[in-house]
Design brief:
This protein is an alpha+beta fold and 303 residues long. 27% of the residues lie in helices and 22% in strands. The chain has nine helices and eleven strands.
């Protein structure tokens, strides 16, 4: 399988973020391990698709990949020789804003207020550190713990609260750049990106999932197993359901800060047999029920 993230997702290099998201959802539905139990090849492809989406869904990483600064795994590519020659042997490149620019400012303060020995009286707060963390849909919905490795080798343990949203910023106070002259340290600001799920869709604190049913199940009703955020449950499908009908599972949605939960809605989709069924076709030809209704009356007179 190609390592180029554009090829992995099957999109053009000028694809929009929405096109990239749609391509990921399509492939994830086909390759998700829950839908392909025991299929190792599908599992490996799913990992590659997820990795490609992680890179291309982040505008900054995507731009750096397009410029050749990082590879398909997000690792730094070797810099040009003429650039490295100007770096000191112990220099490090950081991915965050720290207090690096405060050294000269500290000297200015010292000159203005009576010498370097008085700098401690003018503490400068450390800079905030900015990170981006990508989570699976269920990790964000149910909460999890993540460990972030900083460029200087420091490890941050981050508790992801249940119900975390795509684009939400988590603040870790005092985990940013060191202060100057006794100043307080800055904060770590973590912007969360949530991967789309193959079949769950979040709407506020509610969850929607499309449930295919056969014509027989729709007409006669049935009991089926459906997935939720916390596992599979049994659900009654009443007789006479129609495509688009929303069946509510109370309290099976996103956990709220006050301890309550949203709901999950199973959206019915009636699916006919993939191959023609002579018996069904003959029955429909003989069945006259419902023919007296004009289902398209609302479209009459439309341009």
């Amino acid at each position: 399988m190609s390592s180029d993230p554009y090829h992995v997702l099957g999109v053009r290099r000028d694809a929009t973020q929405e096109e990239i998201r749609a391509a990921y959802r399509k492939l994830a539905k086909e390759l998700h391990p829950d839908l392909n139990p025991g299929d190792r090849e599908a599992g490996e492809k799913f990992k590659a698709v997820s990795s490609a989406y992680d890179l291309l869904s982040d505008p900054e990483k995507r731009a750096r990949f397009d410029r050749g600064e990082i590879d398909a795994m997000g690792a730094e590519r070797p810099r040009a020789r003429y650039y490295r020659d100007f770096q000191s042997a112990d220099s490090q490149q950081h991915q965050y804003s720290s207090t690096a620019g405060f050294a000269d400012f500290e000297d200015v303060l010292a000159e203005l207020f009576g010498g370097r020995d008085r700098r401690a009286n003018f503490g400068v707060r450390g800079g905030d550190v900015h990170y981006r963390l990508t989570l699976d849909f269920l990790e964000a919905a149910n909460g999890t713990a993540k460990r972030i490795s900083l460029p200087d080798g420091t490890i941050l343990d981050v508790a992801i609260p249940a119900g975390t949203r795509d684009g939400q910023v988590l603040r870790l106070r005092g985990k940013g750049g060191a202060g100057i002259g006794g100043g307080a340290p800055g904060d770590a600001l973590i912007t969360v990106a949530v991967r789309p799920h193959p079949f769950f869709v979040r709407k506020g604190d509610d969850i929607e999932v499309e449930i295919p049913v056969t014509l027989r199940e729709a007409v006669l009703g049935t009991t089926i197993d459906i997935p939720t955020l916390t596992g599979r449950v049994r659900m009654q499908v009443p007789r006479g359901v129609n495509t688009g009908m929303r069946l509510r599972l109370k309290g099976k949605g996103i956990l709220r800060p006050d301890g309550t939960r949203g709901d999950q809605y199973a959206i019915v989709k009636i699916v006919l047999p993939e191959k023609s069924d002579a018996e069904l076709e003959e029955f429909v030809r003989r069945w006259s029920g419902g023919e007296d209704r004009n289902l398209r009356r609302h479209l009459e007179g439309a341009a």
